[in-house]
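Tip: read the tokens left to right.
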């Protein structure tokens, strides 16, 4: 991706956020209140993820899990019915509009991972770190039901690292190498239609 493409991508992100945020601010606040009542914890959940150029940033989500030690592959066990609904509908990710607005994320790009994944990319795979992580993207669409897939595995952590993560790297690398503004628009439309 060129510097010009990155600038256009950023301008588009800010424009789209300023269009959607006034419409979605009330639903976001209502979801935060409902999640606070449901989980008995503050309804916004924050966690550090790896962003552009491998730099950590704080991601915002609607809280969906009750207190407890959560492990990959059994997250839905700790979620209420409301929490499961938020996770499946992806409404828990609405606060990431603020991540986009402040420049940590983009509407389209590789999903931001926990430390130990994107920050450890080697060689040509590090091209993925040139772009900001996205709310949606080609790998996000393919692995929309990732949690359900992991729940069926005997060793979800191993499966995630050796199968899903490896495939995501290939998909995200192809996205960056073949980036176009039209591709971003297509992925946003696909994500909207898959809700």
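Filled-in amino acids:
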């Amino acid at each position: 991706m060129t510097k010009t493409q990155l600038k256009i991508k950023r301008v588009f992100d800010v424009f789209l956020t300023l269009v959607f945020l006034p419409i979605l601010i009330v639903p976001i606040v209502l979801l935060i209140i409902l999640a606070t009542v449901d989980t008995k914890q503050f309804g916004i959940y924050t966690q550090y993820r790896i962003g552009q150029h491998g730099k950590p940033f704080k991601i915002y989500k609607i809280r969906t899990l009750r207190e407890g030690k959560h492990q990959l592959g059994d997250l839905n066990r700790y979620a209420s019915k409301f929490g499961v609904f938020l996770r499946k509908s992806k409404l828990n990710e609405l606060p990431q509009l603020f991540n986009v607005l402040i420049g940590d994320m983009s509407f389209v790009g590789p999903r931001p991972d926990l430390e130990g994944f994107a920050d450890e990319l080697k060689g040509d795979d590090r091209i993925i770190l040139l772009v900001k992580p996205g709310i949606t993207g080609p790998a996000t669409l393919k692995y929309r039901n990732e949690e359900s897939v992991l729940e069926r595995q005997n060793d979800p952590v191993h499966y995630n690292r050796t199968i899903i993560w490896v495939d995501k790297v290939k998909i995200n690398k192809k996205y960056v190498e073949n980036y176009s503004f039209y591709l971003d628009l297509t992925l946003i439309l696909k994500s909207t239609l898959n809700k």
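Residues 76 and 84 are 6 Å apart (CA to CA). The two ends are 29 Å apart (CA to CA).
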